[in-house]
Design goal:
The chain is mainly α. The protein has one domain (about 1-85). About 75% of the residues lie in helices and about 0% in strands. It has three helices and no strands. It has helices at about 1-25, 40-70, 75-85. The longest helix is centred in the middle third of the chain and has 29 residues, at about 40-70. The chain is elongated, with a radius of gyration of 18 Å. It starts with a helix and ends with a helix.
Length: about 90
């Protein structure tokens, strides 16, 4: 019984690692391409605040995806569906 459980766990680890790699590849981004050319400190501050707000939203989405993944295969499918609908993948 333990041997079957270990094999199932190993298979699941491999599947999740493959999905994680796919997500990482799908979310690579060229930050230099969008580097702002701002010299005004007020504009820089506004940009930083916008980036911080966007980061907070992305972290919230990531937390939801993580919780869905803990639900198993159906949760992963739901998380992938939501990510695609939200334009994350």
């Amino acid at each position: 019984m333990r041997k079957l459980g270990r094999k199932a766990r190993e298979r699941t680890d491999v599947q999740l690692a493959e999905r994680e790699q796919a997500v990482l590849q799908a979310t690579e981004f060229d930050w230099e391409a969008i580097r702002p050319e701002l010299s005004d400190p007020d504009e820089q501050q506004l940009l930083m605040e916008a980036v911080e707000a966007a980061t907070a939203r992305n972290e919230s989405v990531g937390q939801v995806v993580e919780r869905l993944e803990h639900l198993g295969e159906k949760g992963i499918r739901v998380a992938e569906f939501l990510a695609l609908r939200l334009g994350r993948l």
